[in-house]
Amino acid sequence: VGLVNACNPAQAVSQATHLASLIQVQEAGFCQDGAAVIAAAVSSACKDDATIKTILDDAIKYLPLNSGERMSKAINQALAWADEYREYRSFREHAYSCSKEFFQLAKNNSLETVPLTLALFKIAKGDLEKSVTYAANFGRDTDTMAAMVGAIAGAFGSDDIIKPRWKVKIEANTDHDQQTMALRLSQAAIIKLDTEQAA
Predict the structure, then answer these.
(1) What is the mean pLDDT of the chain?
(2) How far is residue 15's CA from residue 85's CA, in Å, rounded to a whole number?
């Protein structure tokens, strides 16, 4: 959703919220908010003038005031820790020391994974390899966090930031042609943008 709405985080939030509402039908609106935050961050990261600060600002800028309050609070807490500790090991140690207050009963809860994802992106200074490695080794819902932070850092970087051996391994272990999928997402983004500009 973030890529299809590249450079338009407000639209990414709107579409992600609608799509997530089809999946997350329970009262936990923060699940939809979590999807919206990541979509906005990826969309923002596609901008030519994107910075870590603008990406993180855009990630929460368009959240609904009411339902987004819990998500915004959790994100601001995690980002405050990132500012305070600045280094992965210290940040991780502190997060675990606050596990009773911060960690959720279900480790795949977006009130935990989304804030940690944004904080790890910040600590890694947007670097793809560091972001994904930090998330994959953090513990808790590592695969979800690594996928989300990889999407943000990947959009923030360029094609050549992905190690060739990573690409080979991914292509050997997936059922889908990743290059074709990336091309189709890019084409969808261009078509969407052209349609909006023509309207």
Answers:
(1) 91
(2) 34
Query: Comparing 120 with 180, which gets the higher pLDDT?
Result: 120
Which DSSP string corresponds to the chain?
A: -TTTTTT-HHHHHHHHHHHHHHH--SS-HHHHHHHHHHHHHHHHHTSTT--HHHHHHHHHHTS-TTTTHHHHHHHHHHHHHHHHH-SHHHHHHHHHHTHHHHS-SSTT-HHHHHHHHHHHHHHTTT-HHHHHHHHHTT-SSHHHHHHHHHHHHHHHS-GGGS-HHHHHHHHHT-SS-HHHHHHHHHHHHHHHHHHHHH-
Round to whole Å and give the CA distance between 135 and 118.
10
Give the distance from CA 169 to its chain's centroid: 22
Cβ atoms of residues 5 and 15 within 8 Å: yes
pLDDT of residue 65: 76
Tokens of 130: 């560091």
Residue type for position 161: I
Alpha carbons 172 and 166: distance in angstroms, whole number = 10
Q: Minimal CA–CA distance to 174: which of 136, 139, 147, 149?
A: 147
* pLDDT bucket at 169, cuts 50 / 70 / 90: confident
Supply angle C-alpha 143, 147, 148, rounded to 5.
120
